[in-house]
Target: Alpha/beta hydrolase
Amino acid sequence: MPTITTKDGVDIFYKDWGSGQPIVFSHGWPLSSDDWDAQMMFFVTRGYRVIAHDRRGHGRSTQVADGHDMDHYADDLAAVTAHLDLKNAIHVGHSTGGGEVVHYIARHGESRVAKAAILSAVPPLMVQTPANPGGLPKKVFDDFQAQLAAGRSSFYRDIAAGPFYGYNRPGAKPSEAVIQNWWRQGMMGGAKAHYDGIVAFSQTDFTEDLKKINVPVLVMHGDDDQIVPYADSAPLSAKLLKNGTLKTYKGFPHGMPTTEAETINADLLAFFKG
Model:
């Protein structure tokens, strides 16, 4: 399996398919690069080079005890792009991966970056603070950690079968295959990485990162997102970006890149070509 080794000795697994302008995908918590199947297959058949890695502690990357924070996530992404010597790359991040992309561009600069898209993404800040009164109370994320520690297998099953894909909504038609694939990806990763990752995605403030970014960024979010609530995320990020465009999807869930792949892929393609 192709891996790169970071300067602190972590093996990061990645996929690299095709040729052409590179698109780099950053996945959500607690998943792996497999969550991008619908996008990677779509874009590799349309003349793009598609790359996705498993975040440290997730999927097939090393299950280390430490470094599960946005600085390390961004630096690991930078290590992948440098190893592959990517130029004029488009970065696409879902959920936690959206935070990773924003922090990577702000921290490592735009010399290798052409554009970015963040989908159902955690910026600017998920947790409620005096400066972010619309955020979710810290207790929500403390409860996530407690449920993970008590038994993540059932916890992950419940997330996938419920709020992640909107399968708990009236009239929804849950896909058992999608639920099991989410559970499979989660259980491949390390419990410690996922436990610490909850703090990383909920308590990192990306406000200053967003202000630093000059490249065009498409901000895509469903207004029925039960994981990263719409009102305190996408519209605020789009306003903070110098060159941000907000695209709102009525009724789409957090996991829209999977359940609404046809729409999402078409809109991404139009943005890439525009």
